[in-house]
Design goal:
The protein is mostly helical. It has helices spanning 5-17, 78-87, 103-119, 132-165, 173-207; strands at 23-29, 32-36, 50-51, 212-215, 218-221. The strands form 2 sheets. Strands 2-1-3 form a 3-stranded antiparallel beta sheet, with helices on one face. Strands 4-5 form a two-stranded antiparallel sheet. Helix 4 (132-165) packs antiparallel against helix 5.
């Protein structure tokens, strides 16, 4: 009788599952083929038909060493907790529960900030500083520019009338003297107007070295 491969596989599986058995022996008893875990009768030196080598099974690790589970932190003694809290500096903005300040701490912090603001010196306002002086200067500069342009227009008109007065005798000594005198007078008046305009612009540049900008119709330093 021949043993089927399934029977051999079943015996090998059973041998693996059994901690006491290690090998499988093939015996023929009364014309029947059998597989057993010991040598055949009368065959003490028989070699096993299937030799199975079993590796030692490692012992299971404790549940505390399982991945993803951190060991519990040791409990802190009451005296240690009180000592740590007494050493830490007090923060008026931090409370005792979850970092939220208590009403008493908030009031103390508010009073401290108010006292600091009152103690800080207040700088005196500049007599000619921005923004009022800037707007005043801008108005004066605009007036000076208009006056300068008006002066040039008046000069041209006055010189034109003077030349018409000496028409036909422009080269006469009287005409040359009158025209040159008028041109000199008008030139001096133009120089004074230009100096006034430049003086106002220089004052604005001194107040605002980086230039000015207009915010809601008022000038401010950049």
């Amino acid at each position: 009788m021949r043993a089927s491969p399934l029977l051999i596989l079943a015996l090998a599986t059973a041998t693996l599952a059994s901690p006491a058995a290690a090998n499988v022996y093939k015996c023929t008893i009364n014309g029947e083929v059998r597989y057993q875990d010991g040598p055949c009768p009368g065959s003490d030196g028989q070699k096993p038909h299937v030799e199975i080598k079993r590796d030692p099974v490692p012992a299971p690790q404790p549940a505390a060493d399982a991945p993803g589970i951190a060991p519990a932190a040791p409990a802190q003694a009451p005296e240690e907790g009180s000592a740590a809290s007494s050493v830490a500096p007090a923060d008026p903005q931090a409370g005792t529960m979850g970092g939220e300040a208590t009403p008493a701490q908030l009031r103390a912090a508010f009073e401290a900030r108010a006292a600091a603001r009152e103690a800080a010196p207040v700088p005196p306002p500049a007599a000619d500083g921005p923004p009022d002086r800037l707007n005043e200067l801008q108005a004066l500069i605009t007036q000076a520019q208009l006056a300068h342009r008006q002066l040039v227009s008046e000069q041209n008109e006055a010189l034109l009338k003077l030349r018409e007065q000496f028409q036909g005798r422009e080269d006469s000594e009287e005409a040359v003297s009158a025209i040159r005198g008028a041109e000199f007078d008008w030139r001096q008046r133009r120089l004074q107007a230009a100096d006034r305009e430049r003086s106002l612009q220089a004052e604005m540049s001194r107040l605002c070295p980086n230039g000015v900008l207009s915010t809601r119709g008022r000038l401010e330093c950049r």
